[in-house]
Amino acid sequence: MKAAVYEGPRTVTVKDVPDAKIEHPCDILVKITTTNICGSDLHMYEGRTSFETGRTLGHENLGQVVEVGKAVSKVQVGDWVVLPFNIACGFCKQCEQGLTNYCLTMQPKPDMAGAAYGFAEMGPYQGGQAELLRVPYGDFNALRLGEDAAERQLDYVMLADIFPTGYHATEMAGVKPGDQTIVYGAGPVGLMAAYSAILKGASRVWVADHQPDRLRLAEEIGAIAINTAEQDPAEVVKEATLGLGADNGCECVGYQAHDPQGKEDATLTMNGLIDSVRFTGGIGVVGVFLPEDPGGAEAQGELEAQGKVPLDFGMLWFKGQRIGTGQAPVKRYNRALRDLIVGGRAEPSFLVSHELGLDEASSAYEHFDNRDDGWTKVVLHPNGSSRSTSGSSRHTLQELRQEAKEQGIEGRSHMNKQQLERALRR
Fold this sequence. Notes:
The chain is α/β, with parallel strands linked by helices. Helices cover 29% and strands 20% of the residues. The protein has 16 helices and 15 strands.
């Protein structure tokens, strides 16, 4: 089968690898039709983790079941499924508490917890940027989808990671109806955190970043954009709240946070949130921070290379703020979020800017890593279901929305790429 394989820093090659196969009676085998490039893939792509060369990337995966193990009783061949990036057993102490993000069974190191597809330090499992994916404990891990799965893959694939992860940030921050929320980072996860806060009924949501294309998307979903190249987010928020600050905030950037000039500073977003959030407010941290960063010494310093970040802890303590951290337990949220999509309340595919075939993965990684204008979320189609071969799908989401604007099409800001193409009769 073909797969996107990590060959070293900033080098991804699409090549033939051994076919994924059933290895355990509880496994299922999924033909991957849609898989995303995630911002956390870029940490590995850039060589800033311990990810091994020769491994397949990809932890945001959706597809159709083509084979099931002898012990699988619920999932059937032909089912459309989306797969949480967490690989969990369902029966260990952590899983029984709903903490599938810290499963003890699937992580082979006895002093570690948590497993994932194609991810550094999270087990030996191959990723899903490939034609086939082996899914352990398929009955537990696979979320089955309905009759509209094939035509709404761009919405449902977001349930593998970034939609639940953004939602998890708002849960840890304690976002409630009527709250005022500040989100640091307008990448896909930050946009999903803002979108989740809006779905929860937050009265005002700010999104801080310095990438204009991503800030435009934030405005299109009803958030207030703060361009950090021009304004200090904490000052903007405090000016709007009588000096008190937001009720809560979300960190959706992580340890490679950098200023508009490109200088890395792992404290940038965390200390910004401590300043931006009011006394006794909550902060949810889903941006990736690591205990070891192979590139950290050169990019930032020796302490940062060891995962030690100098926080404004005195101010955090003084303000009585709460911080929740860590990867999302996707299964805690994905069923409910799926039903929001089914009911038409949520359309997370508004993020998607590019749909490409698997053979274009190398170029896609390069553009996404460069933060090239318009490359907000890249979807790969390993099994030929990409619409990128047609002339219309080569248009970016922004280009389609501009065309829809020129034609006076209502609701264009909230249409995904497929809906826009239908509205434009492509």
